[in-house]
Automatic annotation (TrEMBL):
It comes from Streptomyces celluloflavus. One of its GO terms (molecular function) is peptidase activity. It comes from the Bacteria. The keyword Zinc-finger does not apply. It is a multi-pass membrane protein. It is found in: Membrane. Residues 1-23 are annotated as: Disordered. This is Rhomboid family intramembrane serine protease. GO terms for biological process: proteolysis. SUPFAM superfamilies: Rhomboid-like (SSF144091).
Length: 305
């Protein structure tokens, strides 16, 4: 949100030797925290806890007496989105979709359904059950995204959905629903694309792990942007990467691809300048999508060339 004309400005002489500005109300108190709405520097005495980060007293009061419109003063997240009444809605929908598809797979296996064979992530393979060559290289690009919502084992979906429920709501609140959903889908696609590029052409994979690692990377970027303690998320990220490479039968390519894409997209979303937020956000997502398409295109040429 743009700074409201007439509100206190950041003191020009508040910079310390280490570059930290002074609180806009107490210039002698250096701080690394900024208001989540107007981005003025605020000290601990001026912080007001909000659903996302902290706000300054002026933004909490809603600009009383400034004469600005309600739209101009509408609460905004750090990424510039309006603050939703339910910051878990998209996360709940994603969780519901994953569970519903898992139920279809779980009970379908008992009915000899071929849902997994039709929708898992596979580059190119000969599948007699489906009548010949199948996979992304055979034109089935939809597998890049359908595999992100596909699980076959209870432990697999339980771990992914618990992670989604833990990581999702804070990011949804910070980024806004549309940006959060876009990040989730791009991270899932990024994981599928790297699996397609590096995994054996007849090696299938499935699961939301790429998207979950994307949320983990985005969480690290967001905490760094808010100057929060990074140790917990870095420890969690490190442990997950260790398990990724040491645990058998894990598609590490999907984890790494999702992590990279999620962190990159989140960086563009939370570091975009306020006067060009929408342009930077769209540009970041478009570049990420084009990179994914390029990886898939190059790999396809290798497999069918």
């Amino acid at each position: 949100m743009d700074q409201v004309p007439g509100s206190p400005q950041e003191p020009h002489n508040a910079q310390s030797g280490d570059g930290l500005p002074g609180c806009y109300r107490h210039p002698d108190r250096q701080t690394g925290i900024r208001c989540a709405r107007c981005e003025k520097p605020i000290c601990p005495d001026c912080m007001v806890s909000a659903s996302v980060g902290f706000q300054c007293p002026d933004c909490v009061r809603g600009g009383s007496g400034t004469g600005h419109s309600a739209h101009a003063m509408a609460p905004r997240t750090i990424a510039g989105s309006t603050i939703a009444a339910n910051p878990r809605l998209v996360t709940m929908i994603l969780l519901g979709i994953n569970v519903a598809i898992f139920a279809a797979v779980y009970f379908g296996d008992r009915l000899h359904s071929d849902l997994v064979a039709r929708f898992d992530m596979i580059g190119l393979a000969l599948d007699p059950a489906l009548g010949g060559l199948v996979g992304v290289a055979d034109g089935q690009w939809y597998r890049l995204i359908t595999a992100v919502f596909l699980h076959q084992e209870i432990a697999h979906i339980a771990f992914n959905m618990l992670s989604l429920w833990w990581l999702g709501p804070p990011l949804e609140a910070a980024l806004g629903r549309a940006r959060y959903l876009t990040l989730y889908l791009l991270a899932g696609l990024g994981g599928s694309a790297l699996s397609y590029l590096l995994a054996a052409q007849n090696q299938p994979s499935l699961g939301a792990s790429g998207a979950i690692f994307g949320l983990l990377g985005a969480t690290a970027v967001l905490l760094r942007r808010l100057n929060y303690d990074m140790k917990p998320v870095l420890i969690l990220l490190g442990l997950n990467l260790v398990f990724t490479f040491l645990w058998p039968n894990i598609a590490w390519q999907a984890h790494v691809g999702g992590l990279v894409v999620g962190a990159a997209v989140a960086y563009g979303m939370v570091h975009a300048p306020r006067d060009r937020r929408t342009l930077v956000h769209i540009g970041t997502c478009v570049v990420a999508l084009l990179a994914i398409i390029a990886v898939v295109w190059v790999r396809t040429l290798q497999l069918v060339g």
